[in-house]
Amino acid sequence: MRAIGMVVAFVSGCCALGQVEGGQGSVATGVVFDDLNKNGTRDAGEAGVPDVRVSNGQDIVRTDKDGRYRLGVEDDTALFVIKPRNWMTRVDKLNLPRFYHLHKPAGSPKLKYPGVAPTGPLPASVDFPLYQTSEADRFHVLVFGDTQVRTIEEVNYLAHDIVEQVAGCDAAFSFSLGDLVYDRLELYEPLNSVMAQIGVPIYNVLGNHDENYAAANDQHADETYERVYGPSTYSFDYGPVHFIVLDDVMWHGATDEKKGHYTSDLSERQMTFLRNDLGELPKEQLVVLTMHIPIMEIAQREALYRLLAEHPHTVSFSAHWHTQKQFFLGKEDGWPGAKPHPHRVFVTACGCWWRGAPDELGIPHATMGCGAPNGWSMVTFDGNQYSIEFRAARRPANYQMNVHAPEVVAAAQTGQTEVLVNVFAGSERSTVAMRVGSGEWIKLERVEREDPYFQAIKVAEESEHPPRGGKLPRPAKSPHIWRGMLPANLARGAQLIEVRTTDMFGQTYFAGRIIRVE
Prior knowledge:
The chain has helices spanning about 150-165, 190-195, 220, 225-230, 270-280, 300-310, 450-460, and strands spanning about 10, 15, 25-35, 55, 60, 70-75, 75-80, 85-90, 95-100, 100-105, 130, 140-145, 175, 200-205, 235-240, 240-245, 250, 260-265, 285-290, 315-320, 325-330, 340-345, 375-380, 385-390, 400-405, 410, 420-425, 430-435, 440-445, 445-450, 475-485, 495-500, 510-515. By secondary structure, the protein is mainly beta. It has a 6-stranded mixed beta sheet, with no helix packed on it.
């Protein structure tokens, strides 16, 4: 996106924050107002809302006592309101928040997938409706990694595998962390129609497979995304928490020497927005960053880390890897903060790209390379604290691990027989223990291993009679496997291996596996 020229504007205490050099622009003015009848239009008696932040994607101003603001724009600008606590923006019939105004007088370049139609000149007043609501300190948010559909059939998989499971839940809103589709941008519309059935507002994140690959540069690669979802970098408050959505995909168009490709980075424009946004937040507020590509891959990550480290309560979310992993970034990673920064790479809704043998409903099992099933997550926020609970697609909430041990163990070999446990959302801060029957609990050690059940599927795929469905990817060394040995001298007959795990949030789950000792 283009840099916007500096606009120094004061409107009854409303001032621009942040600046860049260059560019010739216009000035947008408008009102943020209390939309009492929720019709999206300012009617008589609907007062302006003071002290609300409005941005052009770089500068941020606050509305004056009458709800008015003034901001610089150029011919490719998304103006948006930064939703404050206890207020909500308009949400359309597909549950997509409409908190922005796109200013593209000439429209988007003509590409394979259409972008934004010409918007014409700036309206005399670019107004943003808000309506009052009540937001508790404690609330739930749904998080989906890569839905990544490439066909209508896969949209249907998503509908039956996940959306039907979460529809009607008590979440305040949801995030889709990018790769909404798999290159086929025409699927945005049917995808949105299905996701809308969840019944909560859906905030979307741009992924690399959501880019318009025919674009010559990063400025225009997200034109189709913008047409459908609005700006790809923005922020808002809900309850006591501040959320930031980042487009960390940088598109490099094809040249004579090189094919078009992406890297992970942030533009100077985005960094200026972040400095302005974070600079106004109370230090005790929890800051949540959402992005598609994990934060460790961002080229400017150390500059980003320095901004975040000024805030003692931060966490960041991503997807992209099609595995599930929890990081605690420290000094060795370039993180300068006093305590490690937690970064969660979330489970993907599509798992391993909707591959694998179909079940009785015709839906592929889509197990990820780390051995975890596809699924979604529920994040609970409470003040400046949070917890995350993984949920496997169409499985009960307590399905949190698989236990692997032989079906039959010789009595003389019990003390030499390995038990592996894949705790799907486990991390280095999880504890895992097992016991057999009424025996003592035995602490298990975390190891990086390929999941044995995933390995078995890959062997079956190479057999004379392979299972139906698309082949799974190569197995990955899973970061959430624990290992232990069966106790020696177990009695003959059926024996129950019971496993207990407690995660970094203090949540405890149980699982079991029955073996036979002979």
